[in-house]
User: Fold these one by one.
Assistant:
Number 1:
Amino acid sequence: MNFINKLSAAWTANNSLLCVGLDPDLAKLPAELRDLPDGITTFCTRIIDATADLACAFKPQIAYFAALGAEKQLEDICRYVRENYPHIPLILDAKRGDIGATATQYAREAFERYGADAVTVNPYMGEDSLDPYLAWKDRGVIILCRTSNPGGSDLQFLDTDGEPLYQRVARLVAEKWNKNGQCALVVGATFPEELAQVRAIVGDMPLLVPGIGAQGGDIAATVGAGQTANGMGMMISSSRAIIYAVPQAGEDFADAARRVAIETRDAINGHRSV
């Protein structure tokens, strides 16, 4: 099953557009896990177990692991998802962008080493920098388009023959680069008007939408702008708000993560059209 089919099945099976991000910060881990050699693995797999029936995807951010020299733990976490929840897409959030020969190695890292179903990439260097990822026809290639950070406007709103650059990227992906039907776009929840414009350009193409939760994106506006006609089409990502949720009485960190994930999924579903 390819990435797009797996994602579509997960949307339906879990009745969820919520993508759970895995961004482990040692300083924020429970005290009892910080000094354990496999503390990051334990933390992330507990979060995965607590939210697997609520999520349409899991998205580990590679920088949080690489900074700690914890790539082996990331391998273990990715393997855990593949073995225990093979129906849930695994997205490696790496935002890679480099020339063809180097991109080939980054593609192998994502798809061979970590066994990801999809990877996030940066399109700044153009089509040939994406081709090594697109060659993996059963995997997803999720391309940065309109990002959720304020500084994204420095470049993404530059005029390109009468349209902003982010719209040109969306059009290139929809009309040229998505020849295998494997592409998706990153569009931030912090800019719902631009999200709606991207949706109009790309049709039913999946959108990875960061920016709710800790970044403050409005769920109602996000869903209204980005959903497809059947109420799907998005992976709405939340990381810190879920994985570092403050436990209430009788809860541990995984219980708290599950509670906030339920609240987030239900808030999203409350604004879906179907």
Note: The CA atoms of residues 196 and 225 lie 4 Å apart.
Number 2:
Amino acid sequence: MKIGNQYFDTEHKCYIMGILNVTPDSFSDGGKWTDREKALLHVEEMIREGAAIIDVGGESTRPGHQQISTQEEIDRVVPVIRMIKEKFDIPVSIDSYKSEVVEAALEAGADLVNDIWGLKYDRRVADLIAKYQVPCCLMHNRNNTEYQDFLTDVCEDLKESLAIAKEAGISDEQIILDPGVGFGKTYEQNLSIIHHMECLKQFGYPVLLATSRKSVIGLTLDLEADQRVEGTLVTTVMGVEKGASFVRVHDVKENMRAIQMTQAILREKKEK
């Protein structure tokens, strides 16, 4: 898979998408990176520690978040995307589900669209992805947690996102799937989708796992967001074992080490 000017071996490797929230109210790091110079220093640190993609978000999507205006979101993300692209040779992802924000971000140089609504909130996002010929990450999400058969229903929901992508002309080579941990799921369902995330491999697309510091970890371990690194690492190890091609995380260094160790063990197992 090509993202920006770089190629990703999604069949054999797992890459880190480093999180850069330029928001005052994100659940874990709200307000830390709203200063642009500090944000750039953090990007530099994430790249040094092993991040392969930087995911820029301008609106918190934590439970109970307040939706902000499109213009405010654009004003937050576009200058940061431009600065990253000017200073670093790394693919940048825009974390948004609004077409106006996505278009502004793509014009600013974003290389990938990370849509937490899997193209269902704003169908024009799909058209923009096709127009700019960039990859996209389609996350599972829904407005309720009422499932008849949880894993089957998750896959059926994702089929709807894939149908929108196909209708817009997005090619198979440009699609990544995300099981959507923390979105439209109960605590038990979040644990289940992590445990059974390999069910997404049936579609034949690379899978991204995004669990970093999320409430499913906090509820399990009774820890605040900034204390959830170890819990996140466990999910990363499981993700690598189950074939994830990407993990989206806050703590790059620790997750990079966990990936490298897990891959070394898995390689040794295959060689026997």
Note: The chain has a mean pLDDT of 94.
Number 3:
Amino acid sequence: MVLKYQEQESTARGSVPDAPIDNAYIVGCSGFIYTGASIVSEETRPPSAALIVSAGPAPFKILVKGQELLTRAAVIPPFLARGLDARAVPLVCFHITPSSPLYVEFRALAHGRVVLLERAFFQSLDAPLHALYHGRLAPARAAEIYDQALRIPFQHLTPDSKPDPRQQRIRQLLESGRDLTLTDLARELGTSYFWASRLMTEVFGMSLRDYKSWQKLQRVFHLLHSKHSITEVAHAAGFTDSAHLSRTYQRWFGQPPSYSRNRNNVRVMRCR
């Protein structure tokens, strides 16, 4: 399915008054916060887990498996195919990437399904959520709110399963800087090729190939807002060309990299 990212538009509920441009707060390698006034996307499968909260009274829709889920707060696991309809809704999205220590915990919490949350759980964060949405929160404070927000779901929900104790060893290997194959991973873990592949899927919910694609996109995040062209960014990150980068980026995030790097569309702040 073709992915689309629609900018602010009028709806039956009206438009957002004085709606700001989108904001992206990059929280080190652990994740990022993305805010938008009117985000509408067809089916995407982002590799990050997400905690999505409405900064206002209006709910948003999550479209998954033919269902429409109406809510003001939700946890969505990584790689779950879903659409999002947040027309005229001030949205704050906390993304937990595979590099985050909390990634596996959020996978266990959501366990392959959308988890709807009470918006009241986040009442103590109302003021900073509004500040995030308007791009008025200092980067250091945004990083603090990121950490605080991610703790809230675990105060009210219990993960369906405990984190796999093998995930730390696998993470260490994958982030060692070596270009590991599944054969290398199997040897390091003392297991077979088949079980190494299965462990990747069980622990991270993705294949080794997808994990390597994610590592490339991490490099893209650090280069995208430089003076380099999209083609130069693609080659530096390890993609074959800009078309390959654009397809992967849009498939996972629902918008082309050219949109994300345009400062008229997205304000970018680095928090750590």
Note: DSSP finds ten helices and eleven strands in the chain.
